[in-house]
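Thought: the user wants the 3D structure for the chain below. I'll pass the sequence to the structure tool as-is, report back what it returns, then summarize two notable features.
Action: structure_tool
Action Input:
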Amino acid sequence: MADAHTHADEQTRGQDRLASVDAGETLVDGEDPRDDDLAADDCAPDLDDAYDDDAYDNDEYDDDEYDEYEDDEHRYGGAAGFTLLEVLIAVAILSVVMTSMLGSQLNSMQATRYARDISAAALLADWQIIELEWQHRKDGWTNSDVEVEGDFSDQGWDDITWKCTIHFIELPEYNQLIEAKDDVDEAAGDDDNMMDAGDQAFAGLGMVWAMIKEAIEAAIRKVDCEVQWTSGGIEQRYAIQTFWTDPMALQNVSAASDDEFTDEDDDSGTTEDSDTSSSSSSGTSTKSMQVGVDK
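Observation:
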């Protein structure tokens, strides 16, 4: 501090001497102060010396106050942010929630895709059965089983294949029916001397059974159709079963029964009505469906 005051006093004296020269005054010793070494630049105090660390005594902040300020700064700064542990816990909770949401979304997408595939398979199977029935009515039914297969690429479903089997329904011979009836009567313990109306009707059936058997076999077919596709690496299948009937062939059976039996011969009174009822209800299909998953 003493050095700073000394430099300031020298600067002041130098400025006063310059002012006196400008006013036309001369110094007592006759020297020109402008030539003196105490010029304005030389009279400027040395700030580095004036504010030296050793010379400058900072009494405003002591060490204890500075340490207290740092403690307050750390304390209030921690409340404005998150610690590493808090961040890790938040990330873990977010991961669990996002994983659960992702799993739910995937399950929803799989259920939607399965519903779409099973609906398409059911409609395509029905369409294929109708096409096969029309084709076989056009070409004529055969007296044997027929297997056909293919895919639905023409309908825009390349990954769905189908396989259908048209079964020829073969009815038993009349003597086989007699044997089966005798076995049933023997198991039931019926008396051979007693004959009811059903036995009389069954005995009369033998005269026309060959014609009825041939007409029914030509008028009814059983169809099994299975549709397969792959979804998510798992093989899916949809099976449907139905029956085809030819109403005209069944009407021929009814007409033959009318010619063979009269009201006097038919003691039961039920055979003709049963045949007529079956022929009038022909032409309908009975379907059974089965859906499965092959892993």
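Final Answer: Structure generated. The beta strands are 146-152, 157-168, 220-231, 234-245, 288-294. The longest strand covers residues 157-168.
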